[in-house]
Structure formats: C-alpha cells, structure tokens
Amino acid sequence: MKEVADHNSATGIRGFSLTEKKVLFVIAQLDYADHIAVPYLSAIARQRGWQTLLCVLDSDDFEEILEKQKPLVVGYSANVIGFDVIRNAHLAANRKHTFTSILGGPQATFSPETFEQSGMDAYCIGEGEDAFGEFLDRVDQGQSFDDIPNLITRNGSNPVRSLVRNLDSLPLPDRDITLSHSYLKDTPKKTFYATRGCPYKCAYCCNNLYHELYRGKGQFVRRFSVERIIAEIEHVKSSYRTDFVKFGDDCFALRADPWLEEFAEKYSRRIAIPFNCYLRLDTVDDDLLKLLKMAGCYSVHLSVDSTSKHVREKVLKRNMRDIDIEGTLRKIHYYGINTWVNFMLAAPESTLEDDLATIAMSKKGRVTYPSYSTTVPMYGTDLYDYCLEHDLLDASDHKSDMTGCSDRTTLTCFSDKEKDIRYNIYLLGAFISKLPFPLDRVGVKMIKIIPPNALFKKIRQKMYIYYIENKIFKL
C-alpha cells in the first residue's frame, strides 16, 4: 500500500480486494446544499466496487475515521475558501496514515499552482467523473496514474479530456452519502442540478476560466434529460424530507423550449413541490414565465449587478441586452413568482448614485427581496486582473476570495465615507426599499449620515431570515 500512496511505481503492486477498496471523501464543511460533486464521484466509485465514506472536517473527527476505516484513497473537494483547512488537515493526516490522496473542485481547477504546497498525490482539474474513475482503477491495480487526462501529479500536468457529452450517461448521484449521515436529511429544502455550464463570461465569475480550459473540448452548456432529473428528485423525495426544491444551475432556462415544456408537465404532475431557480434577466419573457408558473415555480434568482449600464457591460462584462429592467421585474411579479435580485455594490467605476439607485429600482420593479453583495475581485478572474491593472486592490487583497462579499469594500478607489455608505446600503437597502414614500427618502438620508452599526446589522439579519424562509424558499 505504501508504494501506491507514493504512486510513482507502476511495477509489482497487486490489486486490492473488495474489502480494502474504501474511498473517504473529505470536505471542509457541509452547508444548506449538499456538496453535489461528492455524490457524483461516490456513484462513480460505487460502480467500480469501492465502499465510499464522508468526512466533514468541521463536524467529524478526521483522525478517528482514518484510524478506524483505513481508506485506500482519500478524495478531497475544496473551493477557494476551504482550501487552507483541507490542506492543513491533509498534511497532518499524511504524516501518520498511509493512503493515496487526490484533490478536486474549484481550488484544483482554478489554482493549480497550489499543487506543490498541498502535499497531495494528485489534483483533478475540470469535470472529474471520468478522470476519477480511471484514477481509482489505476490505484486498485497498483499502476501509475501520472498520465491520466485532467490530473496533475508530481511528474507534471495533463490536458483535460473532452466534456461529458451525454450527461445522462453518468450514474445517478449517490445523494445518500451527504444526506443520510448529516442534518441535511431533515432540512425541508433539497438542491438539484438540471444543467452543466454557463454560456456567459461575466468578468467576476470563474466561468470565463472554465471556457478557456475547455475551448475546443465539446459543447459547454449541457442538460440532463427531463426524465433523468425527475427521477433523481423522486429518488431523494422518497427517502428524505423534501418540501421545497432549489435548482442550483447557473441558469436554469434561457427560453421556452421543448425541454422546458416537458419539464413543466412532468414536474407539476410527478413532483408538485414549489421550487426556486436562477434566470437570466434579459431572456425572461411571457412564454418562459408561463411554463415556469405551470411547473410550480415559487421564486427566481436574478442579477442586475449594477444600475449603471457602463459598469454592467464594460467592467463586469455581463453582456445583457438593453431591456426595461424594472418592467421585466414587474412582469415576473405579475405572474406570481417572487424575485431575489442581486446587486453588486462598490464595483469599479460605479458611483455612489449608481448604488443608491438600486433602492429605487427595487421599489419600482416590485422586487420581493433585493440582495446585496460587495464586489470582490476573485483571483484568476478578468475583474481581478482589471483591479490589479488599475491598482485598486488593497495590499491585503493579493488573492481576493469571496469571503469579503458581505463586508465593507476594500477597493482603494473609494473614500472611507463612500465605503461606509455603500456598506449601509448592503445592510439596509432591502429594508428601505420596502418603506412607503416619504419614509424611504428618510432612510436614504439616514444611511448617508449614520455610520454602519450593530442595529443596522441586526435589521439586515432579521429581514434576510424572514424573506429567505418565507418568500424566496417556502420553508
């Protein structure tokens, strides 16, 4: 087993018996949506006769699980925020236990340069099912996995293979691995994914990196068949509490098409549970809304980002068609579908008036819940490069991540007073948008004068919880 853990020897290592073939998946934390990558990879492993286990570092004893289960493979899944926790846990475990390690997820894909410091035997970049399956086969057979497409090892980096063309060819995700042994089994909301890929290349999103990674490697945006996604929901619904469904796709539907027509009919008949999904604002029309309402859509997530067309198009690169934003939002309200609309505060080149205008836009558009975030130039994105080029990053922001999207902006292009007012919009913008005239005007004046404080934070938290539980998700 030691030679397999060190992995570069391809000679003389026997295959392992079924009882020894254990994969322990490790993630930093489990939020309100189960980590969908792990269920897919668990299904791939189980197809090959491996036993699969899960460790959540913030709630489980990693050391105890390793000692008791003695997995042959430890598979880590990490995003940017959780990487340090996972790396430190792995380095400590690797000093005491023998296993072959592999890390996938956004961290491996978008920060492959961190491989050397990670102490891992392999990184998996991009879509992982086929690569992970091949990796398990090689480990099982005692063979080197240095040449597997999508993998980075100590001997170098391999190109990615083509994207999975037919998503239905993938096994149903093993949702039990994350649901059955966690608090998620009893939560009312369950999350599903009907698509893969986003056709857009917004400057603040890692999708632009994914587009480059898979250039010429197949169709980027793909859908599961309606029957496949309905079957997955039925499977989860039959075993776990499911009062509300959230579709976590970057964009659930761009238009009314035969797929959506079939979905509306089958979902309303066989699932009949209210759901939430993401839409692209400039593709919303009556035909799309009619089908979503027929299916049972309760709420939609949308992004305006900035009220300034210049900022949206030239800085954030949303490439939205020129539409009546407020009129479109009212149209969604007319169909009885609640709206969660995201605004990005303190975007480069935005004015204070641009950010304050989000409150009036929310009122005129009858937005159910205006959600605010602070613009964070995430490392590796076009927006990060823009901010670096224009010297907008604070010295502490050498590699910004999304942890700051709920904080006061650190971009250097705004004065301290402007930063405070923008943070007040984050805290009270949604609240003020619900006030009748002229109290809304008083609210705007107040956030220009009074510094951010604990009361403002409490108001924001109370309002967020109420709208999330009652108007966006029906919990």
Question: How is this structure best described in words?
Answer:
- The N terminus is likely disordered.
- 40% of the residues are buried.
- The chain has two domains: 156 residues, Rossmann fold; 286 residues, pyruvate-formate lyase- activating enzyme, CATH 3.80.30.
- It is α/β, with parallel strands linked by helices.
- It starts with a helix and ends with a helix.
- Helix 15 packs parallel to helix 17.
- It contains 19 helices and 15 strands.
- The strands form three sheets. The protein has a seven-stranded mixed beta sheet, sandwiched between helices. A six-stranded parallel beta sheet has the order 8-11-12-13-14-15, sandwiched between helices. A two-stranded antiparallel sheet has the order 9-10.
- Helix 11 links the parallel strand 11 and strand 12.
Short description:
With 475 residues, the chain is of the alpha/beta class. The chain is built from 19 helices and 15 strands.
Give the CA-CA distance, first to last residue.
48 Å
Shape field: globular
Roughly what is the average pLDDT, rounded to an integer? Answer: 93
Question: Please, what is the CATH homologous superfamily of the largest domain?
Answer: tm_1862 like domain
Number of domains: 2
Helix content: 40-55%
**Coarse structural class:** alpha/beta
The total beta strand count reads 15
What gyration radius follows from the Cα positions, in whole Å? 24 Å
CATH architecture of the largest domain: Alpha-Beta Horseshoe
Low-pLDDT runs of 5+ residues are 1-19
Task: Provide the β-strand percentage band.
Answer: 5-15%
Largest sheet: 7 strands, mixed
Widest sheet: strand order? 2-1-3-4-5-6-7
The third-level CATH topology of the largest domain is pyruvate-formate lyase- activating enzyme
- The first-level CATH class of the largest domain is given as Alpha Beta
Number of helices: 19
